[in-house]
HAD family hydrolase
Amino acid sequence: MTPAPAGAAFFDVDETLIAIQSMPRFLRHHFAASGRPSSAFADAVAELRALAARGVPRAEVSQAYYRHFAGSDVKEVAEQGRDWFASELVGDRLFLPGTLRAFREHADSGRPTVLVSGSLPPCLHPLAELLGATAVICAEPEEAEGRYTGGLVRAMIGPDKADAVLRFTRERGIRRADCHAYGDHGSDLPMLRAVGHPVVVGDDPTLRDAPDAAGWPRLPGVAAG
């Protein structure tokens, strides 16, 4: 019987592993590729920002985001994702260097590397293929007859990420105490607390001020401004 690896490494993606927010940037690409006017994207962003400003929970804002894909062909959106990702690679500024270095060190050591994100599969699968990630655990848009319905089966935000860590480690016989996790936002706290080696990326106030986060290692995040 092959022994379980000494821990796994779990990575949030947006502004943790990559320096951008993939969801709004891909939505712009999707609207343009689908022939929708730029004003449609501006209206969508304004709607989502208004929901967030009212204090609507992130999971509900995420559900509102995925409604903009209602009726879209799943295979076409996947192709759009590959095109979008290729465009984001231009200029060699997509990744946060410190987190990318950590990802590669974990991969080279033989640890499973797992992307855990509320972003959508068409954004994340090209990234996982480029990096050679072991697994992608992400939001799951609802599908019917080859098209997105606009519904969301799974958001993968907050406690969802901790649950994902628990499932992955349990299924593979990995001790959570041996695992690493990387996150940049207060919503990543459940995932960070679920492992023995949490790492904060950037300077989010919630992570900065959490009592148990005081001694956690930190990596540089997206520069302010």
Summary: Residues 38-53 form the longest helix (16 residues). The two ends are 52 Å apart (CA to CA). The chain has a mean pLDDT of 93.
